[in-house]
Amino acid sequence: MTDVQDSKRVPRIIPRSEHRISRANISDNALKVLYRLKSAGYQAYLVGGGVRDLSLGREPKDFDVATDARPEAIKKLFRNCRLIGRRFRLAHVHFGPEIIEVATFRALHDPNGDAGGDRVIEDGMIVRDNVYGTLEEDALRRDFTINALYYNIADFTVVDYTGGMEDLEAGVVRLIGEPEVRYREDPVRMLRAVRFAVKLGLKIHPDTAAPISAMAELLQHIPPARLYEECLKLFMSGMALDAFEALRRFNLFAQLFPGVERVLLRDEHGISTRFISAALRNTDERIAEGKPVTPVFLFAALLWPAVREAMQAYLEQDELPEQQALQAASQEVLQEQVQRVAIPKRISIPMREIWNLQLRLARRGGRRAGRLLGHPRFRAAYDFMLLRAEVGEVEQEVADWWTAFQAGSDEERRRMTEQTAPSRRRRRRRRRPPAASE
Ligand code: ATP
Ligand code: MG
Predict the structure, then answer these.
(1) Catalytic (active site) residue 110
(2) CA 291, 296, 302, 308: dihedral to nearest 10 degrees?
(3) 8 Å CB contact between 310 and 329
(4) Active site residue 138
(5) What CA–CA distance (Å, rounded) separates 272 from 255?
(6) Which of 29, 302, 399, 404 has its CA 20 to 30 A from that of 184?
(7) Which of 89, 35, 30, 92 is nearest to 60 (CA)?
């Protein structure tokens, strides 16, 4: 077991009367885990987002626990416990849908020293890190000072080795240690800096912000599956528009969505930027209203400017018919995209349906209109078209037609389809080449 007194640094110990963390706001399950570790003779702290968010008066998304108990010992204490992770070995204690993540104190990464233990470093990047350490070491290897506050269940104090409480009070996201070294160890920290700043309304400390643009390219070494998870956190927590703008400023968006960034850089009239902004604003509003949001709509919108531009090229240069041009464009854009951000098939297949439906919605009318209403993606495709109309990509009249059509009674719908159907038939007949006989 470790002894904090041995440490070189002296932590600031914040007494219960001087911080906002109250057991009333900690989940019962997290408390159960903390108390059981403590009764078994281990140190037990709430750490990370839980302490940070409670200190800011926010509701934490989840609760993370840090302890000097080793994973095997944790597993023995909890029947409902599973050990996970290779890069970091962690214990997950399951309580129905809630998972309390319990991590054993890990040692600080010493860039000059021998890694030792079970740590693997490649090109300065940590690929495996299971060297156990003291509470102090655990604090110093964390990413930001605001994420390195420890709430001690033994006496309800907060242990602060890095000045995290002051930074929280000043509203500053600051990396612990040398920023360039810390980004090299794990480039995802650049995305996390942006995410915490945006989500919590904090500023990124100038020293923490300075290297990001130049180091953004390091994200290319991160597995696309991990970047997909980060994208969900960036864009699905109610601050997607701010995240998008910050990611672009820091040159990070280009790493995540290179194809879209290329289109945005050429976006003379600003339609593509406005479209993505409108979609993200819409997502944020839905979250604020407690409505469900899906990554399908989100990624369909983010990639749409690239798809639309590629489709235009297939139409003009290759003279493909509309449907085929869209298929080819979707294929091309997704293929490049999944090399960076691994959008799973279960998401990209319905994304393509939303795109395909844009062509069918543009034709509106006819007897097919009624059938389209029953399509499982109709609602999403319709919402998507409204956004396109908002930026002038689709005639408002078409969007209004669908709005009225949905709201209409059976009788009104019949009238609407009749009004549009005959004219379409006439048009089609006129276009038909003379050789075609009926
Ligand atoms: P939230 O859960 O609200 O997204 P969080 O800060 O709890 O935020 P987690 O990803 O749950 O984030 O991580 C828990 C804690 O683990 C962090 O607060 C931080 O102390 C540490 N941590 C997470 N990722 C890293 C990283 N890439 N480098 C260093 N420390 C990290
Ligand atoms: Mg967390």
Answers:
(1) no
(2) -130
(3) yes
(4) no
(5) 18
(6) 302
(7) 30
Catalytic residue among 68, 143, 160, 167: 143
Separation between Cα atoms, residue 199 and residue 194, nearest integer Å? 8
- pLDDT at position 241 is 98
Q: Which of 137, 142, 175 to mutate to test the pocket of ligand 1 (most atoms within 8 A of CB)?
A: 142
Q: How far is the CA of 17 from the centre of ligand 1 (A)?
A: 26
| Predicted local distance difference test score (pLDDT) of residue 438 | 35
Hey, whose CA ends up nearest to atom 6 of ligand 1?
A: 49
265-421 belongs to which homologous superfamily?
cca-adding enzyme, domain 2 (1.10.3090.10)
Active site residue 68: no
pLDDT of residue 392: 92
Q: Separation of 48 CA from ligand 1 center, angstroms?
A: 6
- CA atoms of 115 and 126, how far apart (whole Å): 10
Q: Do domains 12-171 and 265-421 have the same CATH topology?
A: no
Evaluate whether 354 touches 297 at the Cβ level (below 8 Å): yes
CATH number of 12-171: 3.30.460.10
Strands 81-84 and 90-95: antiparallel
At 232 the pLDDT is 98
Torsion on CA atoms 190, 192, 194, 196, rounded to nearest 10: -150
H-run or E-run covering 385 = helix 378-390
Q: For residue 275, which of 353, 184, 419, 386 has the smallest C-alpha distance? A: 386
pLDDT at 119: 66
**Closest by CA position to 202, among listed 309, 339, 55, 337:** 55
3-state helix, strand, coil split of the chain in percent (to 5) is 55, 10, 30
Q: Please, what's the b/e burial string for 341-368 (b: 16 or more CB within 10 A of its CB; e: otherwise)? A: bbbeeebbebbbbbbbbbebbeebbbee
Domain ranges of the chain: 12-171, 265-421
pLDDT for the residue numbered 122: 74
Side-chain-side CA neighbours of 259 within 13 Å: the count stands at 23
| Ligand 1 neighbours by CB, cut-off 6 Å | 48-49, 61-62, 64, 142-143, 147-148, 186, 188-189, 233
Positions in the chain whose pLDDT score sits under 70: 1-8, 108-119, 126-130, 365-366, 421-438
This prediction has a pTM of: 0.89
